[in-house]
Amino acid sequence: MMAVGGGGGEEMERDFEAKLRLQQPSTTGDAGHARPAVQRTNSIVFRAPQEQFSINDFELGKIYGVGSYSKVVRAKKKDTGNVYALKIMDKKFIAKENKVSYVKLERIVLDQLDHPGIIRLCFTFQDTYSLYMALECCEGGELFDQITRKGHLSEDEARFYAAEVIDAMEYIHGVGLIHRDIKPENLLLTTDGHIKIADFGSVKPTKDSPITVLPNSANEKTCTFVGTAAYVPPEVLNSSPATFGNDLWALGCTLYQMLSGSSPFKDASEWLIFQRIIARDLKFPEYFSHEARDLIDKLLDTDPSKRPGAGPDGYASLRKHPFFKGIDWKNLRKASAPKLALEKDTSVDYDSQDTSWNPIHVGGAPSHQQGIPDGSPVATSSFEPQSHISRLASIDSFDSKWQEFLEPGETIVMISNLKKVQKLTNKKVQLILTDKPKLLYVDPSKMTANVNIIWSDNAGDLSVQVASSSHFKICTPKKVISFEDAKQRAWQWKKAIEGLQHC
Ligand SMILES: Nc1ncnc2c1ncn2[C@@H]1O[C@H](COP(=O)(O)OP(=O)(O)OP(=O)(O)O)[C@@H](O)[C@H]1O
Predict the structure, then answer these.
(1) What phi and psi values does residue 173 have, to the nearest 5 degrees?
(2) Which of 188, 226, 340, 488 to mutate to test the pocket of ligand 1 (most atoms within 8 A of CB)?
């Protein structure tokens, strides 16, 4: 494995310190204001402070999830006992992958948002290698997982979640921000089942936004396609400038997915998905109510200005849509939320024989890389195993559940809950790649049942074939094992495995 640290990390640290310098509020004028000045500026007073903490100040727990350039881990501050979702980003990796502007933008924007439906940033800190963002925890996981576990949601459940998303989106749009990546994976659930919107790395401030951004950070991505293929509106595919309507389209796709279990425009590749979006190839399952169909149909209007929420009467037209009859908009957060479905502890997934109706998500494949056929979203996804993984991997050792499969000093490079696709049944497995390197999968319901895939540095003896962003095969001379990754990280798996072969 590559040595860690080096010049890139220090440069990154200097860059962050210079550009996101914490300034003492002056004793006059605006000093008492919690909010920074409204202009684009380098001088920012953060609400969530830059602390001098070290990772050793925290007891690390389970991994909540892995993003394309970060890992989010449960972390308990040893002195206070407070628990956070710690987003850990490797400086060298984000510099190399040109993600610096996304990280800065997310940090600075999250800092200024204050709404119960939006993940709160509590504080940040850094060390030589990593940047850390302490976020409030969402122990209920992603809405995506609720949809997957339940198959699809009832109209009452979907109505509740959609109302909470709309409430938070109205706030986001009210401060002149376009989120640009609304989807079930970015809607997190609290322990008591309420929604919080996460992932502000793709956000776009409009000209009149009172939100402070760093010079250029809002402009850097004006010509970049950001978002996730399945939720991208047709006007974005036609290179129109971003508008609030983009998020309303994504909301329509998300509501459709809540009710059906699958996004409305799905196909085997991004290119085919885009064709369906442009053709507005939209079909509703029969069991959708008239009100649900009507709302989704309107949100998926090809004219962004006609989508409810985008017109002159703003969000009022969304709130008064008949689908939301009975919703008490003023007391959403006080209402009791739908019961969360917990992860099933069964390894065989009998209810997913028809994989063609499984949700299509695009969110984890690498972008602009070596002629990848169904490419990726965007700005969100690429994966580079070496320094990034070797640094972050050690964190996994704290996820003690998988510790028994590791030797002393061995760390996990990548880990995902996947379906092993078999002829008759699909089986849930945990695929684990370590820095040894070692590749194995474990039946999570029988922790003793693990299978080692024979490692080889030779691509002729161990290779990964990606069929789509959710399907890949690991090929060895003796067997070919097919996997399905609902979170579309097939390309990340290929890169991670090949990265270790080339080490
Ligand atoms: N505050 C939080 N509480 C609990 N889990 C979280 C929290 N924030 C993120 N997660 C989980 O961690 C995963 C990784 O989050 P992260 O923000 O690093 O990347 P992402 O937005 O999912 O992916 P990408 O960067 O590729 O768009 C998320 O998918 C989510 O499941």
Answers:
(1) -65, -35
(2) 188
